[in-house]
Amino acid sequence: MAGLLSILGALWTVYLVALGIFRLYFSPLAKFPGPKLAALTLWYEFYYDVVRRGRYVFHIRHLHEKYGPIIRINPYELHIADPDYYDTLYASTSSGEKRDRWSWFTKQFGTPESMFSTTGHDQHRVRRAALNRFFSTASVRRLQPLLNERAQSLIGRFRKAQASKNPIPLEYALAAFTNDIVREYSYGQSDHYLDKDDWGSEYYDAAVTIAKSGNLMKQMMFIFHFISSLPPWLQAKLSPALASSLRFYTLVENIITGIKSQSGSGSTYEHLGHPTLFHEILKSNLPESDKSVSRLKDEALIVVGAGTLSTSWALCVAIYYLLVSPNLLSKLKQELKAAIPDRNQPIPLAQLEQLPYLKATVQEALRMSNGVATRLQRISPDKHLIFPDSSGKTWIIPPGTPVGMTSVLLHHDESIFPKSNEFRPERWIENKWLDRYLVAFSKGSRQCLGMNLAYAELYICLSSIFSRFGSANTDAVQGVRDEGDEGVLELYQTTIKNVEMASDCFIPMRKEGTQGIHICVRN
């Protein structure tokens, strides 16, 4: 037995040495610059993203400064830092170019049948086609009554906080707003987190836990499968946070089962006043295999999670910077006052979208909040990609190679966005050409499906709040008020540390241990 183990150990050592030699010297990616240790093993990325908790994105920026605009960041993947290459990598459907996703990356949320995890270009195109019209500009504008109603519920909670003098946890509050909307639109039902005393904080915490676990799950997905297979009481002992997340997986599965049962029984949902995503998918021409409970459950988890966290964080960023920048808030309030003479009479979304300073504020909030903070790899399955760098050298990227770019690096490229750490909406008004470099929703055939809904939520939420509330005087800044304002908003125990991105957990995460943004509503 000892001899057999020695032989197996020797064979394993030979295999590892041979694998290392291949990766360093004979791999199709061996010619690309980057640290040798990153080319050798995924443990390099593991150190920065798991041990140091989502810091690889910042290290990648450093690697680009050292090695140039194209680098090898692990044994299989390249990363590019060139804003003008974005449209080539993230090619549009009309270009005729195919773009696959990388399965190693998409597995991290445990939703293998979702559109997010659909790696093949053609299958993704078919699945997306069934959903596109529900997130079109026209469809979202027809949804405005729901958005207005939820915005008024949020304003109602602000009034209650004004009376009680209790601070509002803004991340919970705005996630409740976005979650109520996306769930109502998706299922025809929601838990109305805006009406709950705790703002539905359990869902938000569970969704953030899932996001934070992604860096580990990419490397060790067996942990997720192992914990998922355990009884709930044991899950709670091993990982209370992950156990809470898994309860939502089961809850969503039950909702989808109910919707499918209603669809089969001929039940209707027209009384809602708007279509619902998953009822309509079941009526679509998708193959029956794409209408299974397990696949639609995976789709629902991604649609609702993405539709909750990214938009609510962009709203948080916008509100923080407006409250600490009275000159910016003053410009926005002047524009809103002129456009909305009666605060209790909503104006059409199409008109809100035409307000220059509101639009610029939304764009700057998206830039500073980044949308998805991590790199989004694309694979050209059947053609070489050609990348000419600034030195004049042309790099030929083999077909099948995962290649990523990162919104955080592009949005803070000083050659495109000078003083990129400053929140300055004016940059979008002064330079219309900047629009092409806003990639919070990515671009191309796999661009974020819910982009139009997210924009609508940003326009309606910000206009609803700041047409009614100003900002308070503090030691640092002079407040901004209009005649007729219901009150003022004041940051509570909140600094820039509560807003700055400290780590990449698919979405941006603030510094560990900070309490998050809180506001008080004053008379």
Question: In words, what does this structure look like?
Answer:
The chain crosses the membrane at residues 6-26, 300-323. This protein has 523 residues and is an alpha+beta fold. It has one domain (30-522): Cytochrome P450 (Cytochrome p450), CATH 1.10.630.10. It is 51% helix and 7% strand. The chain is built from 22 helices and 11 strands. It has helices spanning 2-26, 36-40, 43-51, 56-67, 86-89, 103-106, 121-129, 137-142, 144-164, 170-187, 201-219, 221-228, 232-238, 240-265, 277-283, 293-323, 326-339, 349-352, 356-369, 407-411, 426-430, 451-466, and strands spanning 70-72, 78-80, 168-169, 385-388, 394-397, 403-404, 469-471, 487-491, 503-505, 507-509, 518-522. A hairpin with a 5-residue loop joins strand 1 and strand 2. The longest helix has 31 residues, at 293-323. The radius of gyration is 24 Å and the shape is globular. It starts with a helix and ends with a strand.
